[in-house]
Write a structure and sequence with these properties.
heterodimer; A: about 260 residues; alpha/beta; Rossmann fold; 2 domains; 4-stranded antiparallel β-sheet; 8 helices; B: about 280 residues; mainly alpha; MetI-like fold; 9 helices; about 0% strand; disordered N terminus
């Protein structure tokens, strides 16, 4: 297996006139091809920042980020992203949202239609091709978000708390759907979440981040066979282990918040 | 029935409530207008019966209604071969051209100022200097320089220009950053982001600017046409002329026409706005 995402010594400093915040400090991580990795951490630890840097939406302050050996310098269609608030174009129909990336690459219309039809099938949106986003439920909108990212045939799917704004039932359903889509497309997935349960349910490996400044505290492999049973003793054991790691970081985050700078 | 639970009003009952509420509004509206007309008629009657010298300035509702109807079928007093239709046409044409010119200049300018900080910094002082000047302050100069046709158009242009410009700039600056991020991760570069994300995003802002601009445009055209120098057409001009001839019944009729015209053009803009936003899938 080859390395898909390689991050070495990554650092990120946000500075304004008044404050200077070190969000990430010497962060190293690696994701191999076809792997499903969850990035988990206390809020404000910089997990979304890592994702945005890999996507090329945010410049790094130091260190290097490579995808398939190529240094990341700006956003590009080989790294698809799925957003927490869906970020669908409200004036485009489901089909035209999905075809956005193909359209700007100049893929001919017939070919675009063929690809989007296949993706609409894959994400289970048949019959909603001509609906606009505001006619869809949250879960359906995120299906569009996933299909839109997949249309470019990216090597990596970057997902920023994609189910964070969905209700619990829809969220569980979407997790199963995502695993189905993942096994059908064999994409590499880097998935940011703050839900331990979600991470254990989805991931091949869970990377737990430290409180700010963020780096990888621990990598926990999850070798349970899929579909995973949330009530099984093994699942609960992994969950407990991850929670224990995370709790310490929450405690640290709380202390730094309380202590004066 | 599956959907209706005890205690929830049925669809029929809700429609009935809505109809009743609308009827109530309609009736109240008719009442208030009737009361207004009755007051108007009494004051006018009192003035003329008591031989008050102000009486000619306030004809009753009936003479005004008569003048209103006559003005559309016959030539109006003071002008030959000119009906209200002709004057409406010449005013509409001026508002139309003033509006089109304002759109043609304000839209690209707003897009440019909203997109580039340098242009914004350069354009803003000019906008801030010229915007507070009432368009009507330009009337004397514009009528001398641009004469009776283009002069009023220039005044309308100024009235429509700033609302559209400011709304477009605001729209560009308020483009949802998440949509820009999404477009970038899908492979879009600056130019594509501009045409496929920024342009569609500003449409609702632009429509607001157009609606405000049209209202201001009508106020401007009427005042611009009232200036004695110009060649003698338009509803604004006729307000002035009919009063000169002492035909105040026609003055009031023309005022009514102006109000209706403004309502109609704003209505058209609203219909277009609804169509556009439905077509774009926005609500």
């Amino acid at each position: 297996m080859t390395a898909c995402i390689e991050i070495r010594g990554l650092s990120k400093v946000f500075s304004s006139d008044k404050r200077r915040v070190v969000a990430l400090e010497s962060l190293d991580m690696e994701v191999v091809d076809g792997e499903f990795v969850c990035l988990l951490g206390p809020s404000g630890c910089g997990k979304t920042t890592v994702l945005r840097i890999v996507a090329g939406l945010e410049p790094a302050t130091g260190g290097s980020v490579k995808v398939h050996g190529k240094q990341v310098s700006s956003a590009g269609p080989e790294r698809g992203m799925v957003f927490q608030e869906f970020a669908l174009f409200p004036w485009r129909t489901v089909r035209r949202n999905i075809e956005f990336g193909l359209e700007i690459r100049g893929v001919p219309e017939a070919k675009r239609g063929e690809i989007s039809t296949k993706l609409i099938d894959l994400v289970g949106l048949k019959g909603f091709e001509d609906a606009h986003p505001d006619e869809l439920s949250g879960g359906m909108r995120q299906r569009v978000g996933i299909a839109r990212a997949l249309a470019n045939e990216p090597a990596v799917l970057l997902m920023d708390e994609p189910f964070g704004s969905l209700d619990a039932q829809t969220r569980n359903l979407m997790q199963k759907e995502l695993l189905r889509i993942w096994s059908a497309t064999k994409k590499t997935v880097l998935f940011v979440t703050h839900s331990v349960d979600e991470a254990v349910f989805l991931a091949d490996r869970i990377m737990v981040m430290t409180a700010r400044p963020g780096k990888i505290r621990e990598v926990i492999p999850v070798s349970l066979p899929r579909p995973r049973d949330r009530t099984s003793a093994e699942f609960i054991a992994v969950r407990g282990k991850v929670l224990a790691e995370l709790d310490e970081e929450f405690e640290k985050a709380r202390k730094t918040e309380l202590s004066p700078d | 029935m599956v959907n209706s639970m005890p205690g929830t009003p049925t669809a029929l009952a809700r429609i009935k409530d809505a109809v009743v509420a609308n009827w109530a509004r309609l009736v109240l509206g008719i009442v208030s207008i009737s009361v207004f007309i009755a007051c108007w008629a009494s004051v006018s009657y009192y003035l003329s019966e008591s031989g008050n010298s102000l009486s000619p300035y306030l004809p009753g509702p009936l003479p005004v209604a008569e003048a209103f109807l006559d003005s559309f079928s016959d030539s109006v007093p003071g002008l030959t071969d000119t009906t209200m239709w002709d004057m409406i046409a010449s005013s509409l044409i001026r508002v139309f051209w003033g509006f089109v010119l304002a759109m043609v200049v304000a839209l690209p300018m707003g897009l440019a100022m909203g997109s580039f900080r340098v242009l914004d910094a350069m354009g803003k002082p000019l906008v801030e200097v010229f915007r507070p000047i009432p368009p009507l302050a330009w009337v004397p100069v514009f009528l001398m320089v641009f004469k009776s046709f283009w002069g009023p158009i220039g005044i309308v242009f100024l009235g429509v220009f700033f609302p559209i410009l400011l709304n477009v700039i605001f729209g560009v600056k308020n483009v949802d950053q998440r949509l820009v991020d999404a477009a970038r991760t899908l492979g879009a570069k600056r130019g594509t982001i501009f045409t496929k994300v920024v342009m569609p995003s500003i449409v609702p802002y632009m429509m607001t600017g157009i609606k405000v601009g049209l209202g201001v445009g009508w106020m401007c055209i009427v005042a611009a046409e009232m200036m004695p120098i110009q060649g003698g057409t338009g509803v604004g001009y006729y307000v002035w002329l009919s009063a000169d001839y002492g035909r105040y019944d026609f003055t009031y009729a023309t005022m009514l026409v102006i109000g209706l015209l403004s309502i109609m053009t704003t209505g058209v803009a609203e219909i277009i706005e609804k169509r556009v936003s439905r077509w774009m899938g926005l609500r």
